[in-house]
């Protein structure tokens, strides 16, 4: 059920809260406190719901309409928006009032309303205020379709099961009124940079070549490289496929802005405005930067805006999925997005902006770690993880030597060992030289680490086979 809307006290200062006192816009009986409302919960007559997610759909289900009679519950929603200021009209529908905390039908008709935007309202006063406007809907014909920007947000590690917790209510509202998928399978490995490059180029990681955040390519450097950095060396790893932002700019000539979206600063043709990737950026920074781009004059405003944040991924890695910390970061994400959309609503830009919200992979609790120190899996380079990749090198051991070392331990330790030529074809991961030669694929919930004494933390991780239900991301 939606949040309950408390009846303000008699001495409530509407002006200080940035609200318009509805009593001043029409008559009501002396001593009553009138509130504009969305609808009444028939199971609890003392509760007035305040979330606009229950607007027209639920009114129809309850048999309510914008024209009330003596046999109907009050259902007019024509002036239910606390963010808008009513002006006098001739039509006078019956409205609901709240007297001593109980909803009743007003005996005095209230004026119909032709709304104009009032002063901005703090989020605490109307967290869901932006729900009153249809996202991306130009109902008044005021938006220039050639200048309506598209904003794409990527939330790292937004697991599918997060949407079953009743926390991401603003995301739920968008999904109900937009287009959504029932679920998303990531590419293998189900990791951040490989999947963002698949989103950008339409290619599997085994073809675009960004197969992990740490990669080894002796043609570029003689040691593994963190390819998240935008230096000249790291940019050499982004050498296959064309990202969609480059295609968009090349075909339209329009501007692109990118806030640390993976890959943006790495490809030869970077977006017009680029803020490089940095870990642990605040969510408010990402939303605030996008607001700055949308507030620019039409001639300077980017037509495609990309924003990436490393939450809830960054928090989830250190904790289990049902932890207080994970719940808190999800609540914060939902609240920050509400602030962002409220700002667009209050400034009149919400209806002239298109949005896409996506993520790269899901998450799973780690139940056990396998210490690679216990195995003699030596090669030219070994990159541990959920999927451990071994580069044999020109003079390294033959694959059969690795299989012999592992055959006694793998049933107990929960992994399989593959020559890259024998990887399941559905993974599309065996064609690129950067993937390595030998793979240790752990079963879901098990990961490989080079452990230091006393430093094993069983938090959460991702990267397993995308067929694991927990690997799926937001619908």
UniProtKB/TrEMBL annotation:
Alphabetical list of CDD domains matching this protein: Enpp
Pfam family for this entry, one: Phosphodiest
Superkingdom classification of source: Eukaryota
Region (Disordered) residue spans: 66-87
GO cellular component, one term: striated muscle dense body
Cross-referenced PANTHER family: ECTONUCLEOTIDE PYROPHOSPHATASE/PHOSPHODIESTERASE (PTHR10151), ECTONUCLEOTIDE PYROPHOSPHATASE_PHOSPHODIESTERASE C27A7.3 (PTHR10151:SF114)
Name assigned to this protein: Uncharacterized protein
Species of the source: Mesorhabditis spiculigera
